[in-house]
Amino acid sequence: MEKPYKNFYKLCLGWFIILSIYLLIVFIVISGGFLRAKNVLGILLLVFPYTVGALYYLFFCRGKSKTFYALGFFVPSITEKIIIYLLSAYIFDINPLYITSVMQITTDEGSHMRQGINGIGTYYPYVFSFFSWSYVVVGVLIPIIMTIFIVRLQKNVDL
Questions:
Q1: Based on CB atoms within 10 Å of each CB, which residue in 8, 12, 68, 78 is the most buried?
Q2: What is the mean pLDDT of the segment spanning 78-82?
Q3: DSSP code string of the chain
């Protein structure tokens, strides 16, 4: 492995860890039948994947720059919110440019869905009903807090 790509590989592995924990939580909620506990699901999806990612970056990516850690947290966080938003706009048949309409119908577990997607219609309104403005704001604050935490911890303590 060449030196310039080593940091990129570590970032990709961190992103994969965050994604896999995120998907694991969603699948457990769907298969466990906890679809109505949308606040609990939102909190779990905000905190747990990024905490596991922070542990990975803390123990296996020591001495990296602030930009490295910020990219490690912000890329999956922003990507997740964009994907959920665009998927909601498609599923509920709303123009993605109408931001407030998409957010409102996603939060309200929308009653009208696009025709022809019968399989996803049973789970989607409940699984992503936690997606609201507060989820987006806290979802941006968590990576900031995790980045500051890791940078300060590595500056003060040599692990």
A1: 68
A2: 93
A3: --HHHHHHHHHHHHHHHHHHHHHHHHHHHHHHT-TT-HHHHHHHHHHHHHHHHHHHHHHHSTT--HHHHHHHHHHHHHHHHHHHHHHHHHHTT--TT-HHHHHHHHHTT-S---TT-HHHHTTHHHHTTT-SHHHHHHHHHHHHHHHHHHHHHHHH---
What the block records as the tokens of 67 is: 């930009």
**Cα–Cα distance measured from residue 60 to residue 78, given in angstroms and rounded to the nearest whole number:** 23
Distance CA 98, CA 110 (A): 15
Contact 69, 150 (CB under 8 A): yes
